[in-house]
Every structure is written in C-alpha cells, then in structure tokens.
Specification:
This protein is an alpha/beta fold and about 375 residues long. It has nine helices and 15 strands. Strand 1 and strand 2 form a beta hairpin. The structure holds adenosine-5'-triphosphate (ATP) and magnesium ion.
Length: about 375
C-alpha cells in the first residue's frame, strides 16, 4: 500500500501543498518547527481520521482559518482517492469522491504503522497506555476486536455500579452479580485470546528484529494477565475469592482491564533496566514485527512512518534499522539532520526539504549499483 500523492489545504502550518511521494523511501528534512511531523501527521489523519498527537481535531485546522482538507491517492491493487475535510462542525470523509456517511466505514482502509517519539510511553507509562497501544494494533487487524472491547467495558461498568449498590444494600451475594460475572468472564476470555494470539505473533518476530538492530538477543514482549492459563471454572473461583474486596471498593479487581505487558530483555524488565536507546530499539522492533503480522494476515504491507526516530540513536543503530527497510514498504522518515543519511546510496529515495510549511526542494536519488 502506497501514497502516490497528497494534497493539503489549510492543514496545520501548510497553506496549500501538492506533493508526490517515492514508492519506497521518503526522507523529509528541515529545521525544528518547519512542518515535518505535520506532513506525516496528514498522511496518518488521511488513514485514520484522527491524529496520533493527543489533540483535538480543531488544532489540525490552520490558525485563523475555518476548515482544512487532506486528499490523497493510495495505490494498492487499485488506485483510490481519499479525502477528509475538517471544520468546526466535525469531519466529512470521501472515497473516490463519494461521501462515506459512517467514519467506521472509512477507517482501517489505509493501514499505517507509525513510530513517534511519544511511543516511548509504551514502555515507560502505566499499564493502561500499554493496553491502549496493543488495542490499537489489534483493532487495525481485526475490526470485531473493538466491538468486543466496547461490550466488555459496558459490562464492567454495569458490574462496578452493581457492586456499589450491593454495599449500600448490605448484600454479600446476588444471582444478578453471578450473571454479570459469568458474562464478563466470557467476554474477557474472548479478548484475552485475541491479545494472546497477537502477542504470540509479535514474539515470533520481535527478538529477531531487536537482535538485528542491537546485536543482542533475548527480547520478548510478555503478556501479564490474570486470565493466563485459567479455565472458566478457575476464573469463577478467582472472582469469588475477590468478591469481598470488590464489594468493599465497588470495583472489579480481576479481568482483562487489568492486563499489562512487559518488554523483557533476558528476563530484565526494560521499563526499569533499559536505557533510552534500548527502549527505543525495543519499540522499533515491535513496529517492524507489526509490519510482518499485517503482511501475514492481510496480504500486504502497511505504510511505515518513522517520525524523529533517529535523533538519539548512534550511527550503527541507524544503519541497522535502515537495513530492515523493504522495498515493498513505503517508508517516511523525518529528520533534522540529513547528513546522518549520507550513506543511503543503496536505496532509491526522494528527499524533501521543508521550511515554514512549504516544500522548498525535492530531489529523487537512484540506487547506486
Ligand atoms: N493549527 C496550526 N496552524 C498553524 N500552525 C500550526 C498549527 N499547528 C501547528 N502549527 C505549527 O507547526 C509547527 C510545528 O510543525 P511540526 O511539528 O511539523 O515541526 P517539525 O518540523 O516536526 O519540528 P521538530 O523537528 O521540532 O519535530 C510549529 O511551528 C507550529 O506552530
Ligand atoms: Mg517533529
């Protein structure tokens, strides 16, 4: 899947822009604040209708204007035109110039794997951030996953509010709670299975990618869940054991909403022991694993965006990561320091120079044989 060209109108610091991209590698460079991240963000928004930056849609609209538009042609087996228009009332999307009424019918048509400096939070932050990251990854592969997750969360809310009611009424047991718990276990087991399948797949690749980048073997992404290896009967026992605590706190202490993940390098937790560089390389190994899983399950590669990935990595790691790039994967790299990439002779690529929301120079480079 490739972006052939992109057109922006009043997007962030871009006034008007039409740009075509290289089918393999695009190196976007310029000073801090010039608009590099904004450009790759536009590709991301075109695919997913929202930004990866934790901001409201309105910030995407250029200051002092009232609407923005992103258009792009995506080439896969066929060529398809996508368009997203944002204004103060909301967003409208089109595919091949036809309006698409439901946003959910639009998203997930353009799969994108993105690295952004904030992704380090995947390791450093709380379990909920890690769950969120994995939820996004799985839902891009499996649309039904998000539905399961919504159903589970609704049920969890119901169970928690019923627990609070029980404390008020002085109940310690209830058939209705048993029904809710039973259902929660069923939904939870479903989600647990999907997470486990996904993480098993990640673990088929992640160690190998990490080793190719760093020379060190033994990276795994461990799945920590109270549901691991438990049958439904055993899970019911676990909920019974927790019942008094659940009632006292008015909340459910067991379930896939408490799941966590651990990046473990030869049994050391990277969260506590890993250097910044090691953490970054672990995340990038995860992203490259995601690309392969997509290819395996969907038959084609997503678009790869590496925003500011290389800023703190030593030259050897940069070179090792670039060696992982495949010609079938259209890749966008942003950097302030283009000299780091002076050894790109083995690639065909396009270099795009950005200044103040404008492309000031574009040049194509042929691979040196
Ligand atoms: N809605 C908006 N309207 C106008 N300008 C905006 C808007 N949102 C962001 N900007 C401007 O865009 C610029 C930031 O662009 P961007 O994040 O793409 O920079 P960058 O080239 O990636 O920089 P860095 O190297 O620091 O990551 C800032 O100057 C910011 O003020
Ligand atoms: Mg940036």
């Amino acid at each position: 899947m490739k972006v052939e060209f992109l057109q922006l109108y009043n997007f962030r610091n871009y006034n008007q822009l039409t740009i075509s991209f290289h089918s393999h590698l695009n190196l976007i460079y310029g000073k801090n604040g010039s608009g590099k991240t904004n450009l790759v963000e536009a590709i991301y928004v075109l695919g997913l209708t929202r930004s990866f930056r934790l901001v409201g849609d309105k910030t995407l609209i250029k200051d002092d204007t009232s609407m923005c538009k992103i258009m792009g042609r995506i080439v896969d087996k066929y060529s398809t035109d996508y368009q997203i228009l944002l204004n103060k009332e909301g967003k409208k999307v089109q595919i091949n110039h036809d309006k698409v009424a439901k946003i959910s019918d639009y998203i997930s048509k353009i799969p994108i794997v993105l690295f952004h400096p904030d992704d380090l939070r995947f390791i450093k932050d709380t379990p909920s951030t890690r769950r969120k990251n994995v939820n996004i990854s799985i839902s891009e592969l499996d649309l039904s996953y998000l539905r399961y997750l919504n159903d589970y969360n609704k049920l969890l809310k119901q169970r928690n509010s019923y627990l609070k009611q029980m404390i008020v009424n002085g109940n310690t047991s209830s058939n209705y709670l048993d029904v809710l718990t039973d259902k929660l276990i069923d939904y939870g087991m479903n989600i647990h299975l999907k997470r486990k399948e996904f993480l098993d797949l990640i673990n088929e690749y992640i160690g190998c990618f990490y080793e190719k980048i760093t020379g060190v073997s033994g990276l795994k992404l461990k799945y920590i869940s109270s549901y691991n290896d438990l049958s439904k009967e055993k899970l019911k026992d676990l909920y019974s054991k927790m019942l008094v605590k659940d009632i006292n706190f008015g909340k459910t202490h067991v379930g896939i909403h408490m799941d966590d993940l651990k990046f473990s390098l030869n049994d050391q937790d990277l969260k506590d022991y890993g250097s910044e560089g090691q953490q970054k390389n672990a995340i990038i190994a995860y992203k490259f694993s995601e690309l392969e899983i997509f290819k395996k399950m969907k038959g084609n590669y997503p678009i790869l965006i590496l925003d500011d990935l290389f800023s703190e990595l030593d030259l050897e790691k940069v070179q090792n990561i670039l060696k992982l790039l495949k010609e079938e994967v259209q890749t966008f790299i942003t950097t302030t320091d283009v000299t780091k990439f002076s050894f790109l002779e083995s690639f065909s690529y396009k270099q795009i120079h950005i200044q103040n929301g404008k492309v000031v120079e574009e040049s194509e480079h042929e691979r040196r044989k």
